[in-house]
Amino acid sequence: MTDVQALALAAVAVPALSAPALALAPARAALAAARGAAALTAAAAAALAALALAGRSSRGDWLVVDEPAGLLVAVIAGVGLASVLASPPYLATLGSSLVAGRRRARAYLALLFAFWAVLLAVPLAGNLGAAWLLVEATTAVSAVLVGFSGKPRALEAGWKYLILTSLGLGVALLGIVLLAAGVPGGGLGGLSWDALARYGSGRETAVVAYLLLLAGLAAKIGWAPVHNWLPDAHSEAPPPVSALLSAALLPAVLLVAWRSEHALAPVVGAGTAGGVLVGFGLVSLAVAVPFLWRPLAWKRLLAYSSLEHMGVIALGLGFATPLALAGAAVHVAAHAVAKALGFYAATPLLEHEPRAAGHPVTGVARTEPALGAAMGISLGALAGLPPSPLFASEVLIVASGFRAGRPWAAGAATVLLALGFLGLLHALLETTVGKARRRNASPRGLRGVVALAAVSVVLLLALAAAAVWLPGADVVDSLAGAAS
To answer: Taken in order 377, 383, 384, 386, is the CA torsion positive or negative?
Structure first.
């Protein structure tokens, strides 16, 4: 076993073993133990990501460690660590839950670590069959977390999420079965990313299998028109879980779709394979934009922003030029930072203004300036307000669309992104400096959110600089080569 493989095992094993340990830990020690386990997990994942991004790869039928995996592992590790640190204020404000009494925190942390462990494993899967099983496992764990508060709306959202994403993954499984039947040798071993290129049952069958696979995965990624679970689940889940769902789960499953596209492109044709991603991207943008113009509750606004940004990433991967891949890489990381901060801010926001759970909020910066600043940083970055790295990444992706010979798609994306920017800019102004209401003072968890906001600003500025440096860098060519 190489050092890279050992680190990959450690990055997944530490949170996986921590989950049952936390469930059995003494109630008083659970939070401290969770912080220690989270730090250890993040350290192992960061070391793995550093090696992967430096070109220390490992590729087999069941495990793949490469530059795309390194990027996603780094994102999932960072968001997971922040979610663990942001969980105590949420638990302190939780009035009811599926688990009562002193077992509540232990059950929540055990589920959170189990979800985190499976998420870290998804980008490391070297096999389409294994990736599907892991994505399905994320559904089972995260559905319980979505409904953890035990409120009727949360339970409904968790059930809706479970049913719709499982139906989607069932459709994806049909595509996988068709692929397995046509790959020489068959079986799960024939579903490795390298083996899929040897599909031998004809292009027409391969196209059908590919469309079934992408349509099924789209339900989990949250692409329109199969995104119906996303606003409800993000709105009702605990804020730290919402951050993991949006900033980590969606792009992790999107990576599976991207690996599938690259693996099957020689069989179905590069234009067809990339065109499906571009199509999902444009539809997602078109569906998201009208909602971004409406007054929405804070977490629901962030959910529709996720739909928009997953569409942007799909465009970058579909255009598939080095410029587009550079933009997609920056977009994944910057979206994770800004979106996670927005969801973490929801915990003090809901205590400061309880109506924010189901209604738009305005003038937060007038009544709680620190909270308003954190929300403003998140929403400004997500809107693509310069110097947000998301502005730079969107420019890279749109420019690459014209270079890739898809001017109509790039032009439509430009119009939709401009409309989305105006909608989010209006929401930013109303949320922060709009008409204020009398609200509760000194919400719990605010100090932690302010600290996370400061870290987020540094990371966002670093990513903005990376967006300038990354085009033409060797790592972009490595990203493209690793996925194929």
So the answer is: negative
Predicted local distance difference test score (pLDDT) of residue 477: 65
Domain residue spans in the chain? Answer: 269-484
- How confident is the model at residue 469, as a pLDDT? 82
Q: Where are the alpha helices (DSSP H) in 199-321?
A: 203-221, 229-236, 239-244, 250-268, 270-292, 298-319
Mean of per-residue pLDDT scores for the chain: 93
Residue pair 434/363 in contact (Cβ under 8 Å)? The answer is yes
Where are the alpha helices (H) located in 2-127, listed in sequence order?
A: 3-24, 30-53, 67-93, 103-121
Identity at 137, one-letter amino acid code = A
Query: Quick one: tokens of 49?
Result: 């990501």
Rounded distance between C-alpha atoms, residue 125 and residue 59, angstroms: 10
Tokens at 414, concatenated: 């430009």
Token reading at 469: 């440096």
- pTM over 0.90, yes/no: yes
Q: What pLDDT was estimated at residue 304?
A: 97
CA distances (Å), 129 to each of 136, 179, 180, 218, 322, in order? 11, 10, 9, 17, 28
pLDDT of residue 438: 67
Which residue has better confidence, 393 or 96?
393
The Cα 279–Cα 273 span in angstroms is: 10
Residue 474: which pLDDT band, with cuts at 50, 70 and 90?
low
Average of per-residue pLDDT across 65-92? 96
Work out whether the CA dihedral 84, 88, 111, 378 comes out positive or negative. Answer: negative
H or E stretch including 65? strand 64-65
Per DSSP, the three-state class of 317 is helix
| Pair of tokens at residue 390 | 């998301």
